[in-house]
Design goal:
Layout (H helix, E strand, L loop, with lengths): L1 E7 L6 H9 L6 E7 L6 H11 L3 E3 L8 H15 L4 E6 L3 E2 L3 H16 L5 E10 L5 E3 L2 H5 L8 H9 L8 E4 H7 L9 H12 L1 E13 L11 H4 L5 H25 L5 H11 L8 H11 L6 H12 L12
Parallel strand pairs: 1-2, 1-4, 2-3, 6-9
Antiparallel strand pairs: 4-8, 5-9, 6-7, 6-8
Helix pairs in contact: 6-8, 6-11, 7-8, 10-11, 10-13, 12-13
């Protein structure tokens, strides 16, 4: 059984297409759990109508109020985990799933479990096709568009994930062991999918399927979307890059604490690497040492331009800023 977790907020314009694409999957054996985060449009009505027509769809009822994207998905993960779901897939309200999405992901996950065991935290993610509001193709491969390493073996997966989220939540499938490790999410976790990717890279395995399984819709209300590396090197982006680096270093420290709480000697190397990354902005870290360490830690990320941006962001002056994203 695959639990599909759908976090919604004012998505009435796109939600019917997403729900129809879920119902059109080539495999059965799934159940959709949806939680609305206080929409002011017809989103909740559409969810309730869908649940009435299809018993595989359930709408979460609670009094927790507005939680934001990360909090909304965390609640869904907690509920699905408590129900014993072996596999969990994340869904965004504005995307469209291609018919073989779940079939491809489940097959890749079962291969991972055969190699590493069901008790190992595992994550499978695929490529996406970038489309506009009318689902017209903007780029056939999100991987190529973003110029980031998706297939990162061994320690490189953790090196990349510490600095940059190379996993897109809506194209991911997690096993139960990963969710149990990741929950509860610490306050320092920047985004739900980034935290899941970090936990899998540190304590288990991440597998990439180089096949687009999602139409990744881009529109003005995207919380997170395709950006393209070229935008990152503009002068106006340097301050944001530094802020992201500070946020990711705090997230790394939280990861190191989580790994050490497990008290598994096999995770000591991953915890130490997370600590090194998390110490980039420590008071005792000099600028030359910070620059050298940032350069070493970015080794798993391809592209000279990105490595230079990352290293420069570690030493450029700037004020700390808390990370906030509108849901």
């Amino acid at each position: 059984m695959i639990s599909i977790l759908l976090a919604t907020y004012n998505g009435a314009a796109w939600l019917p297409a997403l729900l129809e694409s879920v119902q059109s999957q080539t495999i059965g054996g799934w159940k959709l759990l949806a939680r609305d985060d206080g929409s002011t449009d017809e989103t909740r009505d559409l969810l309730n109508l869908a649940a009435k027509r299809d018993r595989r769809m359930v709408v979460v009822e609670d009094s927790l109020g507005r939680l934001g994207v990360k909090g909304n998905f965390e609640q869904l993960l907690l509920r699905a985990s408590s129900r014993g779901a072996p596999y969990l897939a994340l869904a965004d309200q504005d995307d469209v799933w291609l018919p073989e999405k779940l079939q491809r992901q489940r097959a890749a996950m079962q291969e991972l479990e055969a190699a590493h065991g069901q008790r190992t935290p595992l994550l499978v993610h695929t490529d996406l096709r970038v489309v506009d509001e009318q689902l017209r193709t903007l780029h056939p491969s999100h991987t190529a568009h973003e110029r980031i390493a998706r297939d990162c073996p061994g320690e490189d997966a953790l090196r990349v994930a510490l600095a940059h989220n190379f996993v897109t939540g809506c194209a991911s499938l997690c096993n139960r062991a990963l969710v149990e490790l990741a929950l509860p999410m610490p306050a320092e976790a920047v985004l739900h999918d980034w935290w899941l990717a970090l936990c899998a890279a540190a304590a288990g395995h991440v597998a990439y399927v180089p096949k687009a399984t999602v139409l990744y819709r881009q529109h003005r209300q995207n919380v997170v979307g395709a950006s393209g590396i070229a935008r990152l090197v503009k002068l106006s982006r340097w301050r944001r890059a530094r802020e992201n680096l500070r946020q990711s270093s705090a997230q790394a420290r939280a990861l190191a604490r989580r790994l050490r709480d497990i008290q598994n000697p096999q995770l000591a190397a991953a915890a130490n690497l997370a600590d090194r990354y998390g110490a980039l902005f420590g008071k005792a870290t000099t600028v030359p040492r910070r620059l050298a360490e940032a350069w070493r830690l970015s080794a798993g990320r391809p592209g000279l331009a990105w490595r230079l941006l990352f290293a420069a962001a570690a030493v450029l002056p700037g004020k700390d800023a808390s990370h906030r994203r509108a849901a």
